[in-house]
Amino acid sequence: MNKILSNRFPYIAVNNKNYQKICKLHTSSFSRASFKAGDKIRIQKTLTQKDLDTFSNLTSDHNYLHKNNGNKRPIVHGAFLNGLVAGLIGTHLPGPGTILVSQTMKFPNKCFVGEKLTISVELVDVRKILKVKFFCIVEEEKKVVFEGEAKLILAKDS
């Protein structure tokens, strides 16, 4: 069931078995004035071995660390985590028309299949170049597995 979470910004919560998402809904056109520093979005997602296998096949990254090897837990691809963040940035905050200019990132801890992730993006500066910070956290362990900042621009309408 979908539920609007805010009147100031139309947020929607979407739930299914492995995915809980809190999304800022956008109209087809938006501008820098639509945002302010401090705007945030967050999703929760639990990645499965099937997710990793699909990503491995798409990217041809078949490193054994990403496979179920008996008693060792598979490690989630760093690029997969980055893709989840990019999905939030490109579709929700700031949203469609966002172009990545630069990005810094760190992977301070390993992320394993089956861990429940909270992926968050926060808009920290709204100027000609927008700046966001992002985190992927395993909440149960208070473990940061991916963090960084990105500089973005909004595409000009054609």
Structure report:
By secondary structure, the chain is an alpha+beta fold. Helices cover 16% and strands 39% of the residues. It is built from two helices and eight strands, in the order ββββααββββ. It has helices at 49-59, 78-91; strands at 3-4, 11-16, 19-24, 40-46, 98-106, 116-125, 130-138, 143-154. Strands 1-2-3-4-6-7-8-5 form an eight-stranded antiparallel beta sheet, covered by helices on one side. A hairpin with a 4-residue loop joins β6 and β7. The longest helix has 14 residues, at 78-91.
Keywords:
single chain; 158 residues; alpha+beta; eight-stranded antiparallel β-sheet; 8 strands; 39% strand; disordered N terminus
Briefly characterize the structure:
It holds the Pfam family MaoC_dehydratas. This protein is α+β, with helices and mostly antiparallel strands.
* Poorly predicted sequence stretches spanning 5 or more consecutive residues: 1-30
Written as H for each helix and E for each strand, in order along the chain, the element string is EEEEHHEEEE
Q: Radius of gyration, rounded?
A: 16 Å
User: Mind summarizing the main beta sheet?
Assistant: 8 strands, antiparallel
Estimate percent helicity: 10-25%
Side by side, the strands of the main sheet go 1-2-3-4-6-7-8-5
Distance between the termini: 36 Å
* Average pLDDT level: 81
Count of beta strands: 8
- Overall geometry comes to elongated
Number of helices: 2
Q: What structural class do helix, strand and pairing data support?
A: alpha+beta
Into which percentage range does the β-strand content fall? 35-45%
